[in-house]
Structures are given as C-alpha cells and as structure tokens.
Amino acid sequence: MSSANAVLRKPIETPAEPEKRVRNRAATEQAILDAAKRLLAEEGFQNFGINAVARGAGCDKQLIYRYYGGLDGLVEAIGTDLGGWVQDRIPDDTGGMFLLTYGDLMERLALLFLDALRADPLMRRIVAWEVSENTEQVRRLSEARSKALAGWIERMRGSLTPPKGIDTVAVNAMIFAAIQHLVLSATISGQCAGLALKTAKDWEKAATALKRIVRGVYG
C-alpha cells in the first residue's frame, strides 16, 4: 500500500448498492462522475478502472467511453469539477466578515480551506498524492485545484494589496502547505507535532494558531 493510500484510508459513507441505471444523459454523466470520485477517494488510482466505475454508477461501461472518452477524459472531468469544489466549499462572499485588508482576505481563505479539506476525503487523497505520486493524472487534479484557489483570491481581493516587501506566492504556499499537513496528520493519528486534533476544541485551537500566523505576516 502506498503512503498516499495509508494516509487516507479513512472510512467514508458509500452506497450499499450501485446506483440504479438512469436513462437521462445528464443524470448518467453525473452518476458516472460521482462514482469515479467515490472510487478515487476509497481506492486511489490503483483500482481506478472503467469496469469499477461502471459498477459504481450502475451503467454500461460503453457509456463512459461515449460520454467521457475513457479514463483520461473522466480524470479531466474530475479536474474540472474541482473548480466547482472551490466554489461550493469556499464561496465568493465574506461570511459577514469585513475584508478591509489583504490579511482579512487570507485569514478567511485559510480558515475556509482548513474546513473544506477536513470535510472532503477525495481532496485529502489528492493532496497526499501530490507528495507521493508524480503522475500526469495527479498533476492534472492538483493543477485544477491550485488554479481554482488562485482564481478565488483574484476575484475576492479587489483593490486589497499585501504589505510591501511580502512575497505572497511563497507565503501563501507555506500557509496552504501547513494546513494540508495538519489535516493529513490528523487523518492518520489525530495529532500533529504534539497538537491534538480530535475534538472541536482541538480544531478551534488550531484555527486560532492559523489566524495568528496569517496576521503575523500580513497584519
């Protein structure tokens, strides 16, 4: 078992039986996409195949070729769907928070990303793959997520600018890396470097520390 698989063998809810076959094309395409994402979250690319996806979607495997062109097209569709993941999990609103500075913006994004990653087993697996599996499929999924996050920042920041002399690309990369490592460590062992990450109070403590880091850089 690869390190990425070991990291994310966390139980998630799955249907007891494959979904019933549907005749509507749009519904069938969505059923295939959902089954593919479920399979990736559970098994990774090792068991990611046309037959397995078709079983999960409750459809003929020929429909996967017809609608997606095969596995490569399906992976491409999952990557496109990740842009929707960012929009769903990290909405384009302030959540009642006044974004007066670039620090406000990055604090909100950091906290939203933390919560979103904790809630999504497929995204956790993709993050783990980024550091363990250098494949074209993983790069596609990783780039799609990174592009969507960068797009969120551009849409939301408006006229907000970071403090002078701050390399935002480097700093934001470190912030995202810290969040990702925190969540993956919690999935494996319920802690990270001695910080317990099991209860709601534990995560409140982590979120407070994250905000302090962001504010320490951006004010």
UniProtKB/TrEMBL annotation:
UniProt domain HTH tetR-type: residue ranges: 26-86
Residues covered by region (Disordered): 1-23
Protein's UniProt keywords contain Transcription: yes
GO molecular function, one term: transcription cis-regulatory region binding
Location of the DNA-binding region in this protein: 49-68
Keyword Transcription recorded: yes
Pfam family, one: TetR_N
Domain of life: Bacteria
Key words of the record: DNA-binding, Transcription, Transcription regulation
The protein's name: AcrR family transcriptional regulator
Originating species: Rhizobium paranaense
